[in-house]
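Mods, move this if it's the wrong board.
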Amino acid sequence: MAQFYYTLRALDAQVQILTENVASFREQVRILSAQLKSGLVSPIVLYQAQAQLQATLAQLRDVERARADQEHALAILCGRPAPLFTVASNPLHEASPPDVPPGLPAQLLARRPDVAEGRAECRCRQRSDRRGNRRLLSYLHSDRRRRLPERRRLEHLQLAEPRRCHHPQHLVSHLSRRPAQGQSRGHRGPSTGRPSPRT
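Not the wrong board. Structure tokens:
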């Protein structure tokens, strides 16, 4: 209710400012019309002033319509029929809220609607953050359980099938077989490694 009330007062201030602007623009149009008759200004200047006056009038009607909507909202909150509920115009010129006097109990400040709304929003955000953290942790645990058997299987395969090119026993057996293959082909001698004479 306080939000609607202060919005209504702010709209009253806008209506007051626009009403003063409309009066100024009408006076300007009147002066320019007299100057146009005397040949001091061109018609374009008068048309521009008239357009500015019409735009300001349209803005004033929009603000008055918005004020009527806020007044009807206050009537609904008060439980009274809108046609019978009226709020006198009282423009709000203060930009800042009133100062809190010293010595005011904290319980009174805690009952303010904006403070209660802020506390409720903080609680909702904390609950949503906790729910999000629980979902993230459960997803990470489930993903870890799903990937653990696959990782173990890969480690088992690596231990069961080592790389042969780096195994020392394989290198020794490979080097020991090379002279035997040379002797069978007859290209080198049995002990010196020189080629055997041909017959």
